[in-house]
């Protein structure tokens, strides 16, 4: 399936604030249209057609053939772009292939990746005389409701659309699965002198042919500076994975998302942040070994925060790689190992107590168990292990990496390294045994 992106308008309300055309305005390190292309690529779409208008040359020069994104990009120009976005959408008829379905979206709308994935799963069910429209019925969550195109729906079909509708129960998200029927409707509305895309959609809605997909994730129409900032907030919030541990969710992300926001506009890569996180963990280990527990604790927590930022940047800028995932896992284990060794060395050097070595060994053995269990669970059962779903009340156990490093931070700041090591050894092994019991119990039932 191809994707058609409308990038023909002037973007007058946003243009004075940026020195580039609206589709090329950067949001957290990527141009708006670039972000949509990469998001759709993540959904398996590799063939794109961009409808240009006001800034045709600039858009073409920026995106090129798509080779740098691993996709194919072609272009059609609408010289009459001032008349309305319906005329821009209808420009696609010049390259339309008989009976094809296509994704149609505005280049200046931002969608969470999960929203796009869920929407595209319904593509196969769209009939050749239908149009699928993404709509948001969560009106209390819609940003700038007054400026949205309203939708009056009946069950999962649109009855009427319009910006000034008084009777509505959803809004148009600017995302469609189209067929040749949409192009026919566009042709009819243009012949009548109605040049907005909504005019053609209303013709199909009157025939009961506009099916609705109600979204459950975030999206924003980036139209002015306020909506630009809202899109930034939506994207940053979407970076927090469901598998996050308790400490990471309530503490670490408050800092890591700020770091990610600052680094997004730079050329810093996720792997570089991964390396920085490891070096910070190594510095924490050295601090503990040199009897500077407060510094060691703070650095251990900073390593934990940076460990979240590398993943955030990779998701935000579509830089995920298999090697990066491997590198992150391996360096995390080495970082944990060095920190515990530094703590054990400090305890043993000051006390001479051999119990430090035994408890340290127990902590070292337990530290990798959380990650090992999750990876093995994914391989065996074919689905990710989500603590909030599978652990129940155990999800608040500080045995995941974010929780372990938080214990280490507290142990360092309070100068209670023996207590921290005992707690690490206890919670990591206890979590592993309880998870094994729960899996066995669920398998038997």
CATH architecture of the largest domain: Alpha-Beta Complex
Shape designation? elongated
The CATH homologous superfamily of the largest domain: Spore Coat Polysaccharide Biosynthesis Protein SpsA, Chain A
Main sheet makeup:
9 strands, mixed
Order of helices and strands: EEEHEHEHEEHEEEEHHEEHHHHHHHHHH
Terminus-to-terminus distance = 42 Å
Under CATH, the topology of the largest domain can be stated as: Spore Coat Polysaccharide Biosynthesis Protein SpsA, Chain A
Q: How many DSSP H or I helices?
A: 16
Mean pLDDT: 93
- Structural domain tally: 2
Instruction: Please identify the structural class as seen in this structure.
Output: alpha/beta
Q: What would you note in describing this structure?
A:
By secondary structure, the chain is of the alpha/beta class. Helix content is 52%, strand content 14%. It is built from 16 helices and 13 strands. Strands 1, 4, 5, 6, 8, 9, 10, 11 and 12 form a nine-stranded mixed beta sheet that branches. α2 links the parallel β4 (47-52) and β5 (72-77). The longest helix is centred in the C-terminal third of the chain and has 30 residues, at 322-351. The model has no long low-confidence stretch (mean pLDDT 93).
List its traits.
445 residues; nine-stranded mixed beta sheet; alpha/beta; 2 domains; Spore Coat Polysaccharide Biosynthesis Protein SpsA, Chain A; 52% helix
């Amino acid at each position: 399936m191809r994707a058609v992106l409308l990038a023909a308008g002037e973007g007058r309300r946003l243009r004075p604030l940026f020195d580039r055309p609206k589709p090329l305005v950067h949001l957290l390190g990527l141009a708006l249209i670039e972000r949509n292309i990469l998001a759709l690529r993540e959904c398996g779409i590799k063939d794109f057609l961009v409808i240009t208008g006001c800034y045709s040359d600039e858009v073409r020069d920026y995106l090129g053939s798509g080779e740098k994104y691993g996709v194919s990009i072609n272009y059609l120009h609408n010289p009459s772009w001032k008349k309305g976005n319906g005329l821009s959408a209808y420009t696609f008829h010049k390259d339309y292939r008989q009976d094809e379905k296509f994704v149609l979206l505005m280049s200046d709308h931002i969608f969470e990746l999960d929203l796009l994935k869920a929407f595209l799963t319904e593509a196969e069910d769209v009939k050749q005389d239908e149009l699928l429209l993404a709509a948001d019925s969560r009106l209390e969550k819609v940003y700038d409701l007054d400026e949205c195109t309203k939708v009056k729906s009946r069950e999962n079909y649109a009855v009427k659309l319009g910006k000034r509708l008084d009777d509505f129960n959803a809004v148009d998200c600017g995302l469609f699965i189209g067929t040749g029927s949409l192009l026919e409707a566009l042709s009819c509305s243009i012949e009548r002198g109605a040049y907005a895309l909504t005019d053609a959609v209303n013709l199909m809605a009157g025939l009961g042919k506009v099916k609705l997909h109600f979204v459950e994730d975030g999206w924003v129409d980036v139209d002015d500076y306020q909506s630009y900032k809202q899109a930034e907030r939506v994207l940053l919030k979407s970076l927090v994975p469901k598998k996050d541990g308790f400490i990471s969710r309530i503490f670490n992300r408050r800092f890591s998302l700020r770091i990610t926001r600052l680094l997004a506009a730079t050329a810093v890569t996720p792997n570089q942040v991964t390396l920085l996180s490891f070096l910070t963990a190594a510095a924490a280990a050295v601090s503990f070994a040199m009897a500077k527990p407060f510094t060691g604790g703070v650095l251990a927590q900073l390593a934990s925060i940076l460990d979240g930022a590398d993943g955030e940047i990779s998701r935000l800028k579509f830089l995920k790689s298999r090697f990066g995932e491997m590198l992150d896992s391996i360096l995390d284990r080495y970082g944990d190992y060095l920190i515990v060794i530094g703590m054990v060395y400090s305890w043993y050097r000051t006390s001479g107590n051999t119990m430090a070595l035994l408890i340290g060994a127990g902590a070292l053995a337990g530290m990798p168990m959380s990650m090992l269990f999750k990876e093995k669970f994914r391989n065996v059962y074919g689905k990710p292990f989500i603590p909030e779903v599978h652990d129940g009340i155990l999800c608040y156990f500080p045995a995941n990496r974010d929780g372990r490093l938080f214990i280490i931070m507290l142990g360092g700041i309070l100068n209670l390294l023996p207590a921290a090591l005992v707690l690490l050894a206890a919670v990591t092994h206890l979590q592993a045994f309880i998870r094994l019991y729960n899996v066995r119990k669920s398998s038997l039932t």
